[in-house]
Amino acid sequence: MNAFRLAGDMTHLISVLVLLLKIHTIKSCAGISLKTQELYALVFATRYLDIFTDFISLYNTVMKLIFLGSSFSIVWYMRRHKLVQRSYDKDHDTFRHQLLVLPCLILALLIHEQFTFKEVMWTFSIYLEAVAILPQLVLLQRTRNIDNLTGQYVFFLGAYRSLYILNWIYRYFTEPHYVHWITWISGLVQTLLYADFFYYYISSWKNNVKLTLPA
Amino acid sequence: LAPESVKDEL
Fold first, then answer.
1. Cα A140–A143–A71 angle (5° rounding)?
2. Per-residue pLDDT tens for A144-202?
3. Across the interface, do B8 and A113 touch by the CB < 8 Å criterion?
4. Which of B2, B5, B10 is opposite residue A114, by nearest beta carbon?
5. ipTM (interface predicted TM)
6. Are A166 and A22 in contact (CB under 8 A)?
7. Which residue of B2, B4, B5 is in closest CB contact with A56?
8. How far apart are CA A7 and CA A169, in angstroms?
């Protein structure tokens, strides 16, 4: 475990806690894409299949449980909780996320490190996570006023994978035979998708103005 | 050391 990866995991944890805080305390999911939340729940469900078979460390297991628990409870809140549902913008959250799931599944069946069920599912989760933010970014473009918590959520979610890229660079230079092209390329694509959001988020923060994305 | 295929990252 290196500082970049720990910082990445903590940033990821913060993004999830910011979202849970928003939904649980003010009972609002304004500006949040249910599609992205469902995709993330699927990402964690297919990535952590080994949670009961391979014990890496207490930290690893606890974090997996937190990510699984939070992503599924966020989906539950947005689908079932009467009060939260009222603030869900279903007219604008219309990204057909099936268009993301199927190509990722096909790609995972074609390009993977080993052709086993767990490995293909894990690879699918890597590809899916790279594009899972798209419905959320599309929704942000459509909703004019982006509230602070939503902006912070997306910012931390994007920042965590860029910290992971630093972690992969560090591990590449410090650990022999540490090469994972699939994860590296997907992680890079994932981070690049946030590039314009980062630009507008940081410039809105610098100019101390409300975050708005161009239509 | 965990074998190569085991994923130690989240």
1. 50
2. 779 999 999 999 999 999 999 999 999 999 999 899 999 999 999 999 999 999 999 99
3. no
4. B5
5. 0.87
6. no
7. B2
8. 14
